[in-house]
Design a protein that fits this description.
Largest sheet: 7 strands, mixed
Low-confidence stretches: 193-218
Radius of gyration: 23 Å
Structural class: alpha/beta
CATH topology of the largest domain: Rossmann fold
Distance between the termini: 39 Å
Helix content: 25-40%
Strand content: 15-25%
Mean pLDDT: 82
Strand order of the largest sheet: 3-2-1-4-5-7-6
CATH superfamily of the largest domain: Vaccinia Virus protein VP39
Length: about 260
Amino acid sequence: MDELYSLENAQKFNWSSVNGNLNPERVSHIENHLVGKKILDAGCGGGAYVEFLAQKGLEVTGVDKYAQFLQLAKEEGRIGTYVQEDITSLPFPDKAFECTYCFDVLEHVNDMLAVQELARVTTKRLIIAVPKEDEIMNKFNLTFLHYQDKTHLRNYTESSLRKLLSGIDCCNIRIFPELAIPTRNLVRQVIQLDVDGFTKKHMKSSLAKIKLKQIVGFGTSKSQSLYQEFYDFLTNELLDKASYQDIPTGLVAVVDLASL
């Protein structure tokens, strides 16, 4: 499994801690829920979030098991303190940090050991982000790209995440969804027509297309124009004016270890 933890894999699946393109939702989690000044980034990757907080004057330590990610942080000149360690066995004393955040890491490791270690070295709060179990798209034999990351050992439901976190001594657990895929955009892609080169197979893919086939000659410029008009109608008149529930692909847990 360790051979899968490469810079190439991280770039393929767009790990923001490596490529430096901070995810706005993750930044929001940090800004809204971080407490204290002494902070641990558990599974820091290339250190992009470490540097983000260090630039704000916080004392941030980034931990990662893989030397190549920490080497990238060094090469990029990302400020902060970096330590090569496994988050399931941290080298720090008890209550060394006020707050710990851990983004997209628990799904890669023994999550029970990791959570216990994070709680051991933290006094006030944990902020944890994990991939949400795909309970919607699987029904249609579809998946989003990040679910194909072979370094993932598991995904989480709200229930399984809460059960995991209930194993540590804490005052309060709040769990909420994140990284939602707009359903409108998803539907738009599904019904997207190849107007310039559509095939008979495309024509059979929906009842609406079959009916259009009866109206115009198959493959003619007139039929292509009709399909474009039909697509424009679906997207502009129906999708953009309808209300859809977005599909979250992640879960965030804010865990208070002490009364704040």
